[in-house]
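Hey, resending since the last one bounced:
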Amino acid sequence: MADILPLSANITEETLIASTRLHNRFPPDTAFPQIDVLSDGFKELCAVIAKYNAQSHFRLRLLHRHMTIPEGHILLGTSITELCGYWTTLARIPDVDLQRVHRHIISVDTTSCASEGEKRNAPLLPSEFREGPPVSVGNIDRNFFTEFADCLWANGLENTLGLEAIQGQAGKMIEFSFDIGSLLLKEEEVREERRGQFKLQETGWTITVKDGTVYKTGETRCVFYTTGHIKFTDSKAKGVSDVVKILRDEGVLAI
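The C-alpha cells again:
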C-alpha cells in the first residue's frame, strides 16, 4: 500500500482545499458522535497507538466541527501568550505560509471513496492546522498509519475518530467555542468552581503504557450546553483578545 500519510511531503494549496472539504463533513458540535470508550474498537485503536509507540506524538481525537469553513479558508490554530492555550480560527488560504504550518487533526478522507473497494486506499488527510514546524514522528514505523486506518474501517469508526498531533500540547485542556473561533485553554486557566458548572464532552484521549497495560486518559474536553457548545453569538468579538476579555468578564478564568 502507498504511504497514506506522507508527513514528510510539503503541504500544498491542494492539501488546504481538501482539508476544508473533509472538515465540513464532520458532525457539528450540537450532535457529537456517540463513542463508547469501553468498546472493543476504541480499545483496539489505543492498542495500535501503543504497539507502534506513537503515544508521545499522537492522541485519539473525536471528530467534530464548530463551524462550516467557507470556501477558500482553513482552520488554523496558534499559541497565545496571554493565557496558556491555543486560538483556532479561519485563515484565508492565500495568506497561509505553507512552510510554517503543520497537520494537527488527521483522519481518513472518506470523501475520496467513490466505492467500497477504494476504502483500503483512502488517504489520511488533515482537517485542521497549527502554526509551527512539521509534526515529528520520530522512528514510528510507517505501517502505523496504515494499521490505524485499517482499524478505523474494521470497526466502523472512520467518520468518528482520528489522530491529533500532540506537538507540545500536553495536559488537560478545556475548549470554548465562539462564532469566530475556538479557544483551547489549560484546565488550570479555568476557575475550578466554574468547571463544575459546565457539561463537558471528552474529545481527545492520551494513550499511556505502564507495565504492558494500555491506558487512555480524556485530556481535551469541550464545554457545551444541551444545545451544543457555548456560543457567544452576540459577543461582537473580533479576535482572541476580545474572547479572553469576555471569558474574564463572565468569571470563567482563574486570573
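The CA atoms of residues 104 and 129 lie 5 Å apart.

Sorry for the duplicate.
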